[in-house]
Amino acid sequence: MKKLIIIFLLLAATMQAQEGKYEKIKAFKTAYITEKLALTPSEAEKFWPIYNKFDDKFRDLRKKERSEIFQKLREGLDNLNDAEANELIDVSLTIESEEVALRKQMITELRKVISPKKIIILKKTENDFKKELLDRYRNSKGEKGPKGPK
Fold first, then answer.
1. Residues contacting residue 62 through CB under 8 Å, at least 6 positions apart
2. Which of these, 53, 65, 64, lies nearest to 102 by C-alpha position?
3. How far are the Cα atoms of 54, 56, 66 from residue 49, in angstroms, in the given order?
4. pLDDT in tens, 24-62
5. Rg of the chain in Å (alpha carbons)
6. What is the structure's pLDDT at 67?
7. pLDDT at 10 exceeding the cut of 50
8. Which residues touch 91 (CB under 8 Å, ≥6 apart)?
9. Contact 68, 91 (CB under 8 A)
10. What is the largest CA-CA distance in the chain?
11. Other CB atoms within 10 A of residue 47 CB
């Protein structure tokens, strides 16, 4: 019984740490995007509810992708027969289509609150943010990125 309680506490602590890490990343992303888009307070007030709604939907699609595709790939490509491989391809294409549809919906809603130029800058900013996050991760692990040490 004592071991069960210890395991439960460790799991709870791990989940808490992961949630805290996610919240830090989300706060960093919010600040990063707000700065790069130069959102006015009025724009930010309208922009963030829309962006966060779609960001949550994109995150759900990534979870779906991890659970339905990447898990099967981790189990081994050699074990896949053609029917299973075709099923994975179909799932992947469906997820990609859902991502495109979500992006279109998001852009339609964002056009009402920010300029088209800022929408274009948003896409670049999201990509830059991912690169920045990856660089920070690599640097925190002591690895040298493609450009060497910074």
1. none
2. 53
3. 9, 11, 26
4. 888 989 999 999 999 999 999 999 999 999 999 999 999
5. 20
6. 84
7. no
8. 68, 69
9. yes
10. 60
11. 21
